[in-house]
Design brief:
about 160 residues, mainly alpha, about 40% helix, globular
Length: about 160
Amino acid sequence: KLIQSVVIQEMLHLELVCNISNALGYSPCFNPPVYDANKNIPFIHPKKKILPFRLRGYICKPGALNASTLKFFCAIELPHEKSSIVWEKQKTYHSIADMYAALEEGIKHLWNTFYVGDALNTKQKNSFGEYHNTNGRNHGFSQEVNSAETALKAIDAIVE
């Protein structure tokens, strides 16, 4: 059930990011990756010094679910600590949380410049209306994005 709930949440997060992207004039297109089962996944080998401590020592590769892969899965999925970022000096993201923090800053400052307008914002999706909240936290309702406020709500749902 843990894995299934995370898969559902990740699909919701993807929908929310696509809604934000569509509202800002970029329509994402996804091509499924092809991996060699005998090799590590090529994109998840950042330099050790930029990895959060809890992710050091792991290698991401296709495999069966076992204690080690579940521990790695949890290390990736648990929220990372928020860091203090000077955006004018930032050139890379050290975590997915940093990337969403940058997106949030961009929305706060540039929404009116990049929003395509209601007439062109026609690709919004709303597929997760039945994914219930837990302990008063809204873990998963779709959010159509048509304003800076709804974009920021979508980001909150992703990083919560």
